[in-house]
Specification:
about 400 residues; alpha+beta; Cathepsin B, Chain A; Gyrase A, domain 2; eight-stranded mixed beta sheet; 13 helices
Length: about 400
């Protein structure tokens, strides 16, 4: 990847001169290099990334302040280029500016941390690789959460981050007010190189850039970039295809030992409201419990059927017999020879027996013929009594199937 270079000119070279962040700073914006680089490799916000809107439920009637400005106390730190003139390390530089905002504005943080150019370039190559290929914002955030970034000779971490809907000004304001600094990744258009106010435009995009929002008011958000301050209007922030990533970061540098952010918000309560923020990444969603399959219907229990079996074995060893199911009386036990003619036509046993006869021929090699209720079975090596038992079984199963088919 080739990191895009930008040549700042006119108001774009000076930024917003006269703003509070320049007071008392020896290095004026007009003395900063005008040939600078971009370097953010923008990526879609992951689906499993926590959303600020989903986890922040302000009390009824609550609204963020109409304006917030954290730049005054952090003038020295956010006026640093942090290597972004020679390298496409804007993602790292933006985090160095964020640490400056957090530490300068929290009374018990130990004081403003000013990152050095050497530290920023070293972290750039450590995290984003050798050469000059830019950084993926989410990869830098993960490293800042797990291993930390070294600024001012010390490791600085974040507890996590949430995605912020940049198209909703009230959400952006609340995020800046509560978290102190919000990082945005956006496509930088050519005509912004000559402007200190970045407004909606249709000029060609040069490449991806990452900056920290450090202030807002009715006009828009103010960002620190290349040691300068620029105003990005609400219209520009909302323009389709302009901003692609926007994250609020929760940093211990912002909360300090008293667990209270300079905004006055109790961090423990905030962390509770943002329950999924703790690890920075949304945990793997618990797979949904598969639906319980419907209980299959219980098949009807075949009624007990008594049979009358009669038959003889001829001189060729063929057993000729007739097995007739007979419902008879409930209290009746055993076969009722007198019911043969009466019961022989009540069930479709011929059809079922015919089907079973074919199965027996195919599977067991037993020759069975069925015709008008008469079963003819070749007994082979079995005795007539054994064949009679087989006929009994065939007739019983046939009768049960016939009952089911007939709806009994």
């Amino acid at each position: 990847m080739t990191v895009a270079q930008v040549n700042l000119n006119g108001p774009g070279a000076s930024g917003l001169v006269g703003e509070a962040h320049l007071k008392g700073v020896p290095l004026k914006a007009t003395q900063l290099p005008t040939q600078v680089k971009l370097g953010a490799r923008l990526a879609p916000i992951p689906e499993d990334c926590p959303r600020f809107a989903a986890h922040f439920q302000p009390a009824s009637g609550w609204a963020p302040p109409v304006a917030v400005d954290y730049t005054g106390k952090a003038a020295a730190s956010i006026s640093q280029m942090l290597g972004n003139a020679q390298y496409g390390c804007c993602v790292i530089s933006g985090k160095g500016h964020s640490v400056g905002i957090w530490t300068a504005n929290d009374n018990d943080s130990g004081g403003e941390v000013i990152a050095s150019e050497e530290e920023a370039v070293r972290e750039y190559h450590r995290i984003c690789g050798p050469g000059d290929n830019g950084c993926v914002i989410q990869e830098v955030l993960r490293e800042m959460r797990t291993g930390g970034l070294t600024f001012g000779g010390k490791k600085h971490h974040i507890a996590g981050w949430v995605a912020v809907d940049h198209t909703k000004p009230e959400l952006v304001k609340a995020a800046v007010h509560l978290f102190g600094a919000v990082t945005i990744g956006f496509n930088f258009p050519t005509d912004w190189s000559g402007r200190s106010v970045w407004d909606k435009t249709n000029s060609r995009n040069v490449g991806g850039h990452d900056v920290a929002i450090v202030r807002y008011d009715a006009r828009g958000v103010y960002v620190s970039s290349w040691g300068r301050i620029y105003l990005m209007t609400w219209a520009a922030l909302n323009q389709p295809g302009r901003v692609e990533e926007c994250y609020a970061l929760l940093s211990p540098d912002w909360t300090g030992n008293d667990k209270l952010a300079p905004s006055g918000v109790d961090v423990d309560a905030l962390a509770s409201a943002l329950s999924s923020l703790g690890q920075g990444d949304m945990p793997d969603p618990k797979p949904p419990t598969p639906p319980t399959p419907p209980t299959p219907p219980t098949p009807p229990t075949p009624a007990h059927v008594e049979f009358d079996i009669t038959g003889t074995t001829d001189e060729n060893g063929v057993f000729h017999g007739r097995a007739v199911p007979c419902e008879g009386d409930e209290e009746q036990e055993g076969p009722d020879p007198s019911g043969i003619d009466e019961c022989s036509t009540e069930l479709g046993s011929d059809v079922a027996a015919f089907w079973l006869a074919g199965w027996l021929r195919a599977v067991l090699g037993v020759h069975v013929e069925v015709q008008e209720g008469k079963l003819t079975v070749r007994r082979g090596k079995l005795t007539p009594e054994q064949w009679a038992a087989i006929v009994q079984l065939i007739a019983q199963v046939a009768a049960a199937i016939a009952q089911i088919l007939a709806g009994h």
